[in-house]
Amino acid sequence: MDIGKKIKEITDKLPENVRLVAVSKTKPNEDILKAYNAGQRIFGENKVQDLSKKYEELPKDIEWHFIGHPQTNKVKYIAPFIALIHGVDSIKLLKTINKEALKNNRVINVLLQFHIAEESTKFGLSPDEADELLASEAFNELKNVRVTGVMGMATYTDDEDQVRNEFRMLKGIFNSLKNKYFSGAEFFTEISMGMSGDYPIAVEEGSTLIRVGSNIFGARNY
Predict the structure, then answer these.
(1) pLDDT over threshold 80, residue 222
(2) First-last CA distance in the chain
(3) C-alpha pair distances (Å), 92 with each of 56, 75, 98, 209, 211
(4) What number does CATH give the domain 3-216?
């Protein structure tokens, strides 16, 4: 697998406003460095322990994203350096991130995760739950956490129309939240959708962040 070549193949076709998150979970540092040397700077991990270790060992200009669902008791380990947490779907988690960000004298960017797929196993808010969260006093008290957009995962299916409709639904949710809660907020810009199997459709439907792992690094090592 020529990692540098794969990165170039993907990024050459992306519109200017779309960024690639290279999903490096389960991958060794040497693979990450191959991508880094090809110019890639954003990497995504989903295990706090692995992420903290890689942060210590790898170049400091890497922008680390936590993709997935951080456990509240582990947020403190990534709070000093994390650039973006994809996958926040509760006020409890937001409060924890806010508390740990405050300790580190930072504002941590997060994305609200929405449940757009048919599978019941996927995490995420419904639009009504997001309304309730964003309108709440508890949310408005949080000064060290910044919601910069939305994230969602489409159903794992070969039905491209269904995938497209789910991505379109997420874009609609983003637009609605922007109008309602973030109309003056220049930072509310991100739509994280699209993975190795479906990112071209996601890009067509308005994604700004694609999360690609196996297309770059090959199959996962478990």
Answers:
(1) no
(2) 18
(3) 28, 12, 10, 25, 25
(4) 3.20.20.10
